[in-house]
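Submission sheet (multi-component)
Chains listed below:
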Amino acid sequence: MSAPGKTEPTELIAQARTGDTQAWGDLYREYAPAIFRFCRRAMPTREDAEDATMEIFMKLRDKLVQYDASRSFTAWLYKIAANHCWDMLRRKKARHDKDMDDITEVPLQCPEPNQLEKLIEERTGEEVRRALDKLGLRARMALVMRYYSDMSYDEIADALGVRRQFVGVVLLRARHELRQALGESSALAVGGAR
Amino acid sequence: MNELEMKLEQPDDPCLDEMTLLLYAERQLDREAAQRVSLHTQTCTRCLTLLRALDRGSRLLTRSMLEQDEPFPARLAEFHAQVKRNMQWIWGVIFGLAVLGVYELYANYITPVQTQLNDAGFTGSSLLSLVVFQGAFWKGWASMFGLFQFLAVTVMVGFGLFAFRRYLRRGSAMAAVVLSGLSVLLASASPATATEFRKSDTVTIKKGEVITGDMFLAGNHVRIEGEVDGDVFVFAEQLEVSGRISGDLIGFAQTERISGVVDGNVRTAANNVTITGSVERNVTAWNESLNLDSGGKIGRSLTVGGESVVLDGKIGRDLLGFFKNGTISGFIGGSVRARGEMLSISSGAEIDGKTKFDGHKEPSVSADAKLGSPVEFTKVEHKHEARTGDYYLWRLIFTGTFLAFGLVLAGLMPKFAAESVESAGQVGISFGLGVLVLFGVFIGSLIACATIIFLLVGISSLMLWLIMLMAAEVVVGGVVGQWILGRSDEFWKFFLRVALGVVIIRVITTIPFIGFWVALAVCFWGMGAISLTLYRRLQPAFAPNIPPAPMPPVGMSTPLPPSTTVGGI
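Outcome: structure written.
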């Protein structure tokens, strides 16, 4: 799951596990920006992302002793982050009665399946991220887990609480939804230009 | 045979669906199915194109998500979560201690004063109504109520928006809240009344002249010979009222003489006040000398503080006085409650109610004076207040409060706390700056409040001043603790030093006489150290770089990595 060539700071992690505050501080500074970006993609607002980042590291600090050093630390950290963000979103759903299953309304078949690639290529990264904001919570979360943090289908299934076989369906529908959102913004841009 | 296998074996429609190709691109198919897809895409251009599109789409999506579009928030630059979580109970403790402190203040200080004022005729049902609605300057404040109302609501709305900012994500919602608040304010606003201002070296309202409405008069010599149907506010060197004021007279003057009639109250701060005329309601006067002439009359109560008070005239109700020398030779319809050095009750005096006097010398009472009851005299002696168990209990509680406050400060602002303690190490400069800030900011804030326009600024700076005052002991405690135990940057060790220092300071300030001066010095020292830290923080400096995310740079010009997806780290 780590970037190619990137090694994990095992020594730092080991020191942080023993309660070394300096090591913990270094570990935090090392991973917090990436986790914040993950949360920024997954959560609806910047404030939510900031809160989520802090809470994830609070959890991490408590759970650090449980970390199995034979596994990837990054993967483990993202799993914690994903679970936490999804929990927060579910709580938000309970508060605001947001629909988290709207993705099921998106058809699985798409007349132009390769259109997403073209649309993303035509757009800036910022436009793509803005389009992500328009997706349903589950769709957005699935895309972030898969394409930002490179989580496996098993991990995504575990975090979202769905069967593994359903993850592909969720992702495909999420991609269609994103294509739709990008297409709409494109149409709006063309309309505005006229 | 599953659906995929059936699909792969269908000879009439050999092309694969998007789902299958996505699973293949993402390496989610089992070996056998993956081999079939691989074989098919070698011969089917359509499926190969779609597979490449899906794969590229995934990688472009990854690249878009990995872009570092916004800076890492400064508030997340350091990890404060442990402290944040541990602080939860502290707020409860602080709240509890604050409630206890307020109760103590109210029970031991405010209630006795209120009782005394009630005795003197200020019969407000509560302290709030006493101060605000029956207070000395109520008439003056009344006209400004709309402004206060606006400021209060604005501050409340501001706090509300800040507190619920996370729920007000949409600008329209925020605008709706703000507009609703403004609408309520506009709807509830009352129309303004006309007020006349006169400013000159000599301001005279001539005999026969009738002014309707409130007046503000300023000048060296102010004479009111005519009639004012409203309240009069005067700032003058000499003030003479020989006419009639149907409202209140609120005056600040060197010499003030009332020979006419005031139908309302007189509230005044002046060097010399002489009343030979009539005041129908109450008089509140803070002055060097007050003389109620034999022809003078106060319809209700007199509250006076000054060096010399001579009362030859008539007071309808009670007298509450704080003076050095007091002489009563006139009529008082109610009771007398006075405190001072000396009180003389002459032969012509008549007091219908009780007379209580707390003073250094026993009052001189003429045998011909008519008193409702004998004078109750309490000799005031300079002695140190006896320290009971309650005193030490409260010292302990306040020590706990300071420790909790220190814990919160050190937890919420660890860097600032450490810097403040470090600044306190520079004793001379901290002390000097502290003297300046303790008096300067306080006076400046009061002036800002008085200007009304800068009321919000004044209140804010006053609050900041108060917080600094509270934190001063904690900061000095920190430096004292470090002198004893040595320096440490670790949170709990740092707090241990603060706690030790605070306890030492609290013990020293308990010592009679010395304690007061030590406490004052600690205030100067601590406030100076905090001010010095604030000053240094406000100096322009290059912002420290936040460490970059440990990931390979992914830009639009960077070639996509060979793997399908790349994690964020």
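Remark: Confidence is low (pLDDT under 50) at residues 81-86, 124-148, 187-193, 541-569 of chain B.
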